[in-house]
Specification:
With about 240 residues, this protein is α/β, with parallel strands linked by helices. Strand 2, helix 3 and strand 3 form a beta-alpha-beta unit.
Amino acid sequence: MTENRSNSLSAAEVCQNILRIRENISTAAAQSGRSPEEITVMAVTKTVPWETVNAAIGCGITLLGENRAQELLEKFPHYTLGRENIHFIGHLQTNKVRQIYDKVSMVESLDSLELAKELDKYAARLDAPMDVLLEVNIGKEETKSGIMPEHCLEMTKKLTDFSHLRLRGLMTIPPPGKNTVFFAKMQQLFVDITAKNRDNSTMNILSMGMSSDYEDAVRYGATIVRIGTAMFGRRNY
């Protein structure tokens, strides 16, 4: 993955960006009557060199988000954080599950029963339950994966059949623009599903908001914001 790396910033620049992000989160949290301690800043590491990721860890980042299985395999041995601090956030093909299973503590992008079955199979084989978030296609976009919002409650019922999966919450990537409308819909969906108290779920995570909109996401209840560009600079794909 070395051919598509980001414009590498110095450790000092990364730390400065992280400080600015945390200040913005504190302001947004205060505006919505929340504590900034309720929100975890995830460093999205797609195309970012492991040296730069470790610089962010040195500045207090405790959660990494990985988009690609192959990139995770290449960089994982170099990280100064272990699997308990890494989530998989990209589209995960079922044939890649075995590659990443022992390197992440959560799959945030659960978007089908087929993927749930494969994750549960490996979890049972290793006797290692996996935490998951249900990815919601809140904008009902044809080009994006995820469960349609009107089908999410039904999907949570079906997930109770998988004894080695633990549903922890919801994740989304809203369409560009009018994000507050979609964040509000996600917040209500999260509240509605959480109230159902499924047997294998402890619904306390709402992962939404990225570099361009994380402050709004915080105002609408996000507990994880996924930050790439605002932390590491613009990336060259």
